[in-house]
Amino acid sequence: MGKNYIESAKLVDKNTLYTSAEAMDLVVKTSKAKFDETIELAIRLGVDPRHADQQVRGAVILPHGTGKTVRVLVFAKGEKAKEAEAAGADYVGAEEYVERIQKENWFDFDVVVATPDMMGLVGRLGRVLGPKGLMPNPKSGTVTFDVAKALSDIKAGKVEYRVDKTSIIHVPIGKKSFGAEKLANNFRSLMEAVVKAKPAAAKGQYIKSVVISSTMGPGIKINPTKVLE
Fold first, then answer.
1. Does the record carry Ribonucleoprotein as a key word (predicted)?
2. Is the pLDDT of residue 89 over 70?
């Protein structure tokens, strides 16, 4: 462990469940790297993702964005392709991008949007896009004919959240440079969305644990029963 990490870890009590406000202050103080570290949440849920009725997935627009420039690939043709280009898509096309991804292992994009009529084509990429969390999905608003709105939302700071097979959601909520207040606003928006997405089939405690950390910093535990306070 590096010197900065050891110094940062001294500021965090591993046995304390911090309030969200305390945690935002701490995560900024413990971000000691020379670059603008990403601040990420790990939320463990009381769900069993092996069951279809206990999946937790969605998207939310963070009020202050993520601090990251997002590259968007849009699968569309005709007027919808022109609409996507006008709305600021980084890449727009169809078969040529399917081929490029399959043959060249090309992944110079962060989000994939597709019009519904293109999903038959995009489906061929399921095995490579799925494991990377890049497969377009109606629930996250990335399968739509309103490509202009989808692009506007994504560029404004929309993030997707999805529970993984270990029942944990990993999602970034901003950068160290945002400061504690903006991070707190983004944190609340995300937690409200996750709480709202609670499946009816989920029993017992839904939010089991919440840990926030910077790219190079220690984990800071947030009281899971008070995430919306």
1. yes
2. yes
